[in-house]
Amino acid sequence: MKVSFNRLAEAELIAAARYLESERRLGSAFLDEYAGWEKRLRVYPESCPEIAPGIRCGYLTRFKYHVTYMVRENSLRILYVRSARRAPLRRWPRS
């Protein structure tokens, strides 16, 4: 299954890794956790709860980040990568 990113979501993933690297030297550990989560998602794309019609949200437990995505035929579209400490999303303007 192919995975693609909204350009802002990709920037959010990179920014989170850079922040964690600068603060705690954990940038690569964060990216490793994301990669493992994405690998599982490719096998079980509908394993995360649906939070709006067609939109699902996964959780990176060690770093407490949400990853919001859509399943489109044989591909996954990552919409947001956000710290769980931030206010929850109310709208889904990205595609």
What's the short version?
With 95 residues, this protein is α+β, with helices and mostly antiparallel strands.
Percent helix: 25-40%
CATH class membership = Alpha Beta
Global geometry:
globular
Could you tell me the mean pLDDT? Answer: 92
The total of helices stands at 2
Would you tell me which CATH topology applies?
A: YaeB-like fold
How does the major sheet shape up?
5 strands, mixed
Overview of the structural elements:
With 95 residues, the chain is an alpha+beta fold. The chain has one domain: 2-Layer Sandwich (YaeB-like fold). It has helices at 7-24, 27-43; strands at 2-5, 50-52, 55-60, 65-72, 75-83. The chain has a five-stranded mixed β-sheet. A hairpin with a 4-residue loop joins strand 3 (55-60) and strand 4 (65-72). Helix 1 runs antiparallel to helix 2 (27-43). The longest helix has 18 residues, at 7-24. The radius of gyration is 13 Å and the shape is globular. The mean pLDDT is 92.
